[in-house]
Structure formats: C-alpha cells, structure tokens
Amino acid sequence: MANIVLGNKEFFKGIGQIKYEGPQSDNPLAYRWYDEHRVIAGKTMKEHFRFAVAYWHSFCGNGGDPFGGPTHIFPWDEKSDAVERAKDKMDAAFEFFTKIGFPYYCFHDVDVVDYSNDVADNEKRLQALTEYAKQKQAASGVKLLWGTANLFSHRRYMNGAATNPDFAVLAHAGAQVKAALDATIALGGENYVFWGGREGYMTLLNTNMKREQEHLARFLHMAKDYARSQGFKGTFFIEPKPCEPTKHQYDYDAATVISFLRQYDLLGDFKLNLEVNHATLAGHTFQHELQVAVDAGLLGSMDANRGDYQNGWDTDQFPTNLNEITEAMLIILEGGGFQGGGINFDAKIRRNSTDPADLFYAHIGGADTFARSLIAADNILQHSDYKKLRADRYASYNSGKGQEFEAGKLSLQDLRNIAAASGEPAVTSGRQEYIENLINRFI
Questions:
Q1: pLDDT band at residue 321, thresholds of 50, 70 and 90?
Q2: Suppose 300 and one of 55, 114, 161, 271 were both cysteines; which one would form an S-S bond, judging by CB atoms 3.0 to 4.6 Å apart?
Q3: Amino acid 197: pLDDT
Q4: C-alpha gyration radius of the chain
Q5: Any idea which positions bind Mg(2+) 1 (predicted)?
C-alpha cells in the first residue's frame, strides 16, 4: 500500500496513512487500540476482524433524511456521465480504503454505478466499473469481502423482489443478481450477501405467504447454482432483519433464517451475516443473535453498527459501546470466529458530520472499539473465572442421573421418581451482577 492516492485527484487532502500509535496517543487520526499485527488468541487482529468499508454508506450516503435533503456534498459526484462519475467515486473510495488501512470493502451493485431502467445498459455500466475496480484492487491490495444487489430501492421492488407477486419483477431481480454475481466473481469476492429489504409483506390480506417463501427459496437455489457453475467457491450469506421497510420481513431474525434454510435445503451453501441494529429491531440483543448463529455453526459475517436507544428505527451509527462489543467478542472468540466473512462497517456518519475527516474518525473509532473489546474478551476468557462460572451452573449434568438424561437413558417416569425421591431442589444464584462487574473490570 505504498501509493495512497490511487487516482488523478486526491479527495482527502491533508490526511495520510492512518497508523497505530498506541493507547497514549492524542492523535485523532491514529489507532489507539487497533494494531493489525498484534496477536490475540492465536491470530492477528487483522485476521480476527477482516474489516471492510461499506461502499454505500461511506460514498453514496448523502446525509438526507425524511425531513431534509442532502448535507454531504461530495466532490466525486460532480460529473454528469454515470460511468465517469462512478470512476471518480471509486477513486475516492480506494483512496479512503488505503489510507484507513482496511483489507476489504463491500458493495451493492447500484453503489458502484447508477442504474437506469435498461437491463443491458446496467450490465454494461457495471462491467465497465468492474474492470476499473480490478485495476484499483491490484494497485492497492484491497480485496472484495462480498458483493450484493440492491433489490429494494427501485420502485419496481415496492412489493418485494424474489417474493414479488408479479413474475416480471422477479425476473428483473434475477437479472440484477446475475450481474452482481458476475461482478463479484470477476473481482475475486470472497462471499455474496442476500438482504431481503422488501422480502416480506405489509398486510396478509393480499399476501400468499407460503407461495412467496417458496419463490424466495427457488430464487436462492437458482442464484447459488449459477454462481457455482461460474466457479464461485465462496459462501452465501443471508442478513436477517425483522421489519422496516416492510411490516414483517421473512428473514426476521437468526432463528427464522436458520429454519428457512433448513426447510428449503440451503444449509450447505448459506450462512448468516448478522447486524447489530437489526438484532435490536427484532427485540434481541446482538449477543443473542450471535449465539443462535454460533450454536448452529452458521456465523458467517457481521455488519458492525448500533442503534439509538431513543429511536425505534435502523439508525446505523458507528459502534462505540465497549460493553456491548466485548460481550459480542466473547461469543465470537468461543465460537471460533467468522466462517468466510468479517466485520463490515455498515454504518454512516451523522447528518451534521460534514467534514472529510469525519469519515476517518468514524472508522477509527469503530476499529478501536472492536480491538479494545477483543483484548478485554480474550483476557476474560484467559484470566478470570468467567468460563468456570458458566460451567458450574450445569455441573449436575456432568455425572449421575443428569448425565444419564443427556445421554437419553431416562424416561419421563424416571424423572418423576427422581424428583419424588430427592425433594425440593436447592436455590442457586446465577450471579449475574458478579459477572457483569467482571466484564467491566476487564474493560
């Protein structure tokens, strides 16, 4: 990464390579905790996290909201020609990737270049930018963690894409996914993501839910089969979300998605890409969603962000909560890490964060939060009684009748006889406050 300006113009002037300077540094444009070469639990931080920049929020998000227009006016959006404008945006993106020092990026198709309503023209545009991205990747060493297609923004997808009641819309979705898969494969993308932004319903009064889910499963099989026929060896991810923009999305949470994958014979090729803010919208903690995926052997990747406690929607703020991320890293570490994916900062700077440096501060803070949490989680696992406390709660299943129960050697009548003979069980504390204090002590 010797050349940190990968285009004809420098978009982030005055900002050089972001480096690790340690916890004592006062430099806001330096990492205080994220040392990519530091080894924790047998792997470097770079290997643990596999950080990726989200093309959409970082270079397409304009700060607009339902009550006001754009506040982020980017110099890479000035040209009128869609392909030339997209090349400027890609120059800026790779300059940022290289300066921030992350090994990966990820994108939706329409993030890379604006689409029209012409399928062939869209394919031509994306192919042109794919060739340009190949050059950028070769020059920078940055790789593609995953690609995906945006099947939710265009008005044709107002009733869903693969679950749309109109076959003509489903066909358009297929064309988009094929092109996005082709681009992902051409760029050496390691994974491919499906997020069903509108794969759900607003009311059951006009919805055949069974038929729509069967269509979704068939669509996923078709996409998987096509990608494999083109030599794609990576993993497919589904990203759960309960609602917003639809009232109820079919990929509601981790457990729902796992059940869907199992029902439609997709478990062999698909894993989960979990998002913090989506977990909270589903009424879960992020730790819960992680544990569900880990227990099923399906934790593929994650989108790192957070919601706002006062707002009930997907605010996609950068992660800064050390307690939340430390508890997440405990599960990720004990679960053996990600299967194919990494940590994508699916987060956006705030509407009033309008300086070019703000994008750097946001990613630096997110990376440092994860790095500090990884260190704390590893210390908890290695130097505290955290694991023993949990193990001791289940000690009654390690021998005697409890062990026989787990081995399937007892009947319901046996349980009745044991209860009658042993009397009322002792009351045993779960010691929740003790463990919460333990977490804080290591942070």
A1: very high
A2: 271
A3: 86
A4: 24
A5: 239, 275, 303, 346
